[in-house]
Amino acid sequence: MSVRVKICGITRTEDLHAACAAGADALGFVFYDKSPRHVSAAAAAALLREMPPFVQSVGLFVDADPAFVEAVLQVAPLDLLQFHGDETPADCARHGRPYLKAIRVNPDTDLLKCAADFEAARGLLLDAFVPGVPGGTGERFDWSLIPRELPLPVILSGGLDPGNVAEAVRTVRPWAVDVSSGVEASKGIKDALKVAQFIARAKAS
Ligand SMILES: O=C(O)c1ccccc1N[C@@H]1O[C@H](COP(=O)(O)O)[C@@H](O)[C@H]1O
């Protein structure tokens, strides 16, 4: 079974179509207003109407007000929520939707404890820890910190790009990989060639 690929930070229809045509399994939409990849609920709703079948839409939130998450869900029918801040298991569960919990990994992170704490998550999305920046940093972390026996699907992210994704898949054997800045032409704008190379190399590994 080849690894799944999520392309995060979609802001434009043409990028959505390019990623889907290249074989993306999931697309991410960032509802965090400090991100250069931020989309409004209305813009996301318009993008979601362009989604082909069998490609999942993922809404990314960072310590969002629950009322804001619900307001987004009213207009944008997201398949999966991605909580990328310091949300608790209760925060993540309160919307009654399937979710991923992002963990920003540093040498002190106890990933087995995280997996136990977030046992209701559909997967743990592992990203680099960069102080003061919740994600989308383009930074890698030490993949040897990931235990082999994690009981949840691992979505590997953080500093992946077309040049290192094959090594990442061969080394970590994650359920999926996720990329944002590594396939961009500029912040918030995807590079269709990088997206296609990333997906092809991930799935061939
Ligand atoms: O993409 C963003 O702008 C973003 C903002 C806030 C939190 C998370 C964000 N993106 C997620 O960060 C990781 C790694 O991104 P990168 O490939 O290193 O740029 C990824 O999971 C994105 O979904």
Automatic annotation (TrEMBL):
<keyword id="KW-0028">Amino-acid biosynthesis</keyword>
<dbReference type="GO" id="GO:0004640">
    <property type="term" value="F:phosphoribosylanthranilate isomerase activity"/>
</dbReference>
<keyword id="KW-0413">Isomerase</keyword>
<feature type="domain" description="N-(5'phosphoribosyl) anthranilate isomerase (PRAI)">
    <location>
        <begin position="5"/>
        <end position="200"/>
    </location>
</feature>
<dbReference type="InterPro" id="IPR013785">
    <property type="entry name" value="Aldolase_TIM"/>
</dbReference>
<dbReference type="Pfam" id="PF00697">
    <property type="entry name" value="PRAI"/>
</dbReference>
<protein>
    <recommendedName>
        <fullName>N-(5'-phosphoribosyl)anthranilate isomerase</fullName>
        <ecNumber>5.3.1.24</ecNumber>
    </recommendedName>
</protein>
<dbReference type="InterPro" id="IPR011060">
    <property type="entry name" value="RibuloseP-bd_barrel"/>
</dbReference>
<dbReference type="InterPro" id="IPR044643">
    <property type="entry name" value="TrpF_fam"/>
</dbReference>
<dbReference type="InterPro" id="IPR001240">
    <property type="entry name" value="PRAI_dom"/>
</dbReference>
<keyword id="KW-0057">Aromatic amino acid biosynthesis</keyword>
<comment type="pathway">
    <text>Amino-acid biosynthesis; L-tryptophan biosynthesis; L-tryptophan from chorismate: step 3/5.</text>
</comment>
<comment type="similarity">
    <text>Belongs to the TrpF family.</text>
</comment>
<keyword id="KW-0822">Tryptophan biosynthesis</keyword>
